[in-house]
Amino acid sequence: MRTRSGFESEALSERFTGRDALLQRVAGAVPEAWARQIAEHIERQDDVFVTLINKCPFGIYLVDDALTIVAMNERSQQGAFQNVRPVIGRPFEEAMRILWPEPVAEEILGHFRRTLETGVPYRSSAFVRPRNDVAQVEGYEWELHRTLLPEGRQGVICYYFDSTELREAQQALAEAARRQRLLIDELNHRVKNMLSVVQSLARQTIGRNPDPAAAQLAFEGRLGALARAHDTLTRVHWEKAELADVIEGALDSCGVLDRVRVDGPTIWLESRLAVSVAMALHELCTNAIKYGALSREAGRVDCTWHVAQAPSPCLVLQWRERGGPAVTPPTRRGFGSRMLERALAGDLKAQVELDFAPEGLVCTIAATAPALFEGPAQPAGEQS
Questions:
Q1: Which of 209, 281, 348, 363 could staple 215 via S-S, CB 3.0–4.6 A?
Q2: pLDDT in tens, 23-46
Q3: What is the pTM of this model?
Q4: Half-sphere exposure of residue 143: CA atoms within 13 angstroms, side-chain side
């Protein structure tokens, strides 16, 4: 009894091959006309199948029982075998040794021989190897099937798909997911650090200042300096910031950029170091505006830096005030002094020297953190 699926299969075959229509047309014809029409039909069908095979998006080729390449679609000739000429009629072993290193060629030949001898299909879904003829590692998914050739001999047909681009896309997606996880972890870490910094600023500024208005003003100024430092880092995607940009941002946040001479070579700071430097410069600015050179119209500041080479690279940054009131050493050490001496000592591996000279405060920061010198160090005094 014929099943419904059997009828559907025959109906599909009829629509594709036109077999029944052909038989009806030639039923009453003379033998010569019948043979001619059959031959024409077969030729048209051959053309259809050749077109289908050549236009399919994967490679197909056929080797006989002597492992000679006997047929190949256009995708193969223009793709994996484009550097093998001639290709049809060539021993498959020769072609493999042109395309692949010896161990890889032997691996492929072994799979073809086993399928030819046993009739057991083979499939490889993770074949990624370096080739001889192109300067890249390529990946393929391929499978082998034993087939019967027209003359009655056995052969092996190979279907393959070049998965190089797909594999690269998958790797890119995996890398993007990894980077996203790292960014989320880094964001969580930075948020926690930022909250710690703000908490410290609040405790040191507000908690120890008897004047609420002055404490609020100082706290807001320090938060503004922190925000400016983060703006600078955002522009470079939190990777590195140039020292000159960090210094100018801190000066601009205090409104004194036009009264400070900034001069030094190009130095790049990691994000953590950039925030520390920005906060330190803000403290120096604030102190100069309240008590130092910037408290008078004629007062000026030189903020310069250079790289000393001996005995090991050292960034020397100097803040030198002039034209202000006579300086006397403070009677107590405030939060700004502690930040300069402790925070910079920890982050930049710096030694901080405060010289309260009568003619103006001089702050010298000598930093040796390795992160400052990842690129070639520049001679002292060289302009960026």
A1: 209
A2: 555 555 556 666 666 666 666 666
A3: 0.42
A4: 8
Is pLDDT larger for residue 8 or for residue 308?
308
Contacts 24+ apart (CB under 8 A), 140-143: 140/80, 140/164
Mark residue 332 as left, alpha or beta (left: phi above 0; alpha: psi -120 to 50; beta: remaining).
Answer: beta
Half-sphere exposure of residue 356: CA atoms within 13 angstroms, side-chain side = 11
Cα 13 to the center of its chain, rounded Å: 51
Report the percentage of the chain scoring pLDDT > 70: 63
pLDDT class of 1 with cuts at 50, 70, 90: very low
- Residue 275, both tokens: 């925030």
- Local confidence band at 144 (pLDDT 50, 70, 90 cut-offs): very high
* Phi, psi for residue 284 in degrees, rounded to 5: -65, -40
Instruction: Determine contact, residues 194/238, Cβ cutoff 8 Å.
Output: no
Secondary structure, 3-state, the chain:
CCCHHHHHHHHHHHHHHCHHHHHHHHCCCCHHHHHHHHHHHHHHHHHHHHHHHHHCCCEEEEEECCCEEEEECHHHHHCCCCCCCCCCCCEHHHHHHHHCCHHHHHHHHHHHHHHHHHCCCEEEEEEEEECCCCCCEEEEEEEEEEEECCCCCEEEEEEEEECHHHHHHHHHHHHHHHHHHHHHHHHHHHHHHHHHHHHHHHHHHCCCCCCHHHHHHHHHHHHHHHHHHHHHHHHCCCCEEEHHHHHHHHHHHCCCHHHEEEECCCCEEEHHHHHHHHHHHHHHHHHHHHCCHHHCCCCEEEEEEEEECCCCCEEEEEEEEECCCCCCCCCCCCHHHHHHHHHHHHHCCEEEEEEEECCEEEEEEEECCHHHHCCCCCCCCCCC
Give the pLDDT confidence score for residue 369 in this predicted structure: 74
Q: What mean pLDDT is reported for the chain? A: 76
Inform me whether the pLDDT recorded for 55 exceeds 90.
no
User: What is the distance between the alpha carbons of residues 251 and 293, in angstroms, rounded to a whole number?
Assistant: 14
CA atoms within 13 A on the CB side of 195: 5
